[in-house]
Amino acid sequence: MPEVQHTSQAVDHHLTHPLFTNAIKAIEEAGALINCDKNVMARLQKPKRCLAVAVPVRMDDYTVKVFTGYRVQYNSTLGPFKGGIRYHQNVDMGEVVGLACLMTIKNSVMGLPYGGGKGGITVDPTKLSRTEKQNLTRRYTSELGPFIGPQLDIPAPDVGTDPQTMAWMMDTYSQEQGYFVPGVVTGKPVEIGGSLGRAGATGLGVIYVTEKAFEKIGKTIKGSKIVIQGFGNVGSHAALYAYERGAKVLAVSDVSGGIFNGDGLNIPELIEYVKNNKVVTGFPKTQKITNEALIELECDALLPCALEGVIDSNNAEKLKTKMIVEGANGPVTNNATKILHKKGIFVVPDIVANGGGVVVSYFEWVQDTMSFFWSEKEINEKLRDIIVPAFEKCFALSKEKDVDMRTSAMAVAVARLEKAMLLRGLYPR
Ligand code: NAD
For the segment 400-417, what is each residue's pLDDT rounded down to a tens digit? Predict the structure, then answer.
């Protein structure tokens, strides 16, 4: 077969963002591990479609500001594009391409019938009034109108966007179609087609995977000692589900710092405390601890659920945990992953560990499509039925090839895409 040649230079200068170049490096390594078809590898290294749109918005003072919005549709081999919408001042095309590439991988490794996409607007949403944010969202949705839809591309919330943003997106799209189209976005409020269980889904997925990872190292979550960085959506739910399963959560932290109790924290009480006090510090019967010291605590499982890059080559050698389950995106750097693998610390990578959110987004889309809604119990069980086999598949390949699980998860994702691309073939040939 002749090799694929690329000529789309208009896109090429956006393909330099470190998020993207790191993702491509990892895809190349994974491709080499499974001896992936080289034409498939070439196709996986370019986004299928990159949109940039002007988003004019009437501000509260009646002036008009023009923002820039993006949507990158990276790959649709396995199904409609799927991925979040980010509102942040640093958003640019390069970042969105990188994130869309990673969504392609994540959806593939989870076994979902989705391709990968991502979108965003270069804006600091904290500087907008509610009306301005609504105007921005509606015009952006309208500009994307011909390119999104339940069978085509399904956005969701990401940094700086929330269920209300998705409600406005869904309403705008539906107004323009002339009928109710809840399946155009996920992460909506439950009252208008959102799914039960979505709020806790990522944290629950982290704990399903943690339970399985404990099995692999001959332990159980019950009676284990767990440390969690971050006590937001992912961290607080993961803490609660671990606590309910009989784990001792020794320490948690947030932007205000960390708290420690060697006998384990009462997580339901801590959640109540944070509702009233906004931060974890000051919770009774605890010692203060820094975020840096928290990461180095002796424990059975460390769950970083806050920031990127908190475990790097500077602190990887000092860790005293038996395993790390990445609740956040990218908390362990690639170099640190290699060091930890050598030290025998088991790392469950983000694309597997925090996939619970996108899995329940998938359930939301299925429920919207059928107009038939499931109980939270059904959703939580179905989540386990998807995330645990995905974990097992990646674990088996990591053993077979003797590689860390980040590499094997990437390889599982690439192999599924490869198979589907080869079956579908190239149009036109
Ligand atoms: P969130 O905003 O609800 O919570 C973030 C937490 O991190 C907060 O407790 C915050 O105080 C803490 N934090 C911020 N700065 C910190 C610092 N310097 N040191 C320690 N803690 C700090 O966010 P979230 O939704 O829980 O997301 C957390 C991570 O998980 C992000 O990387 C996100 O991309 C990833 N993620 C989230 C989901 C989801 O469904 N929410 C899904 C997949 C991945």
Answer: 999 999 999 999 999 999
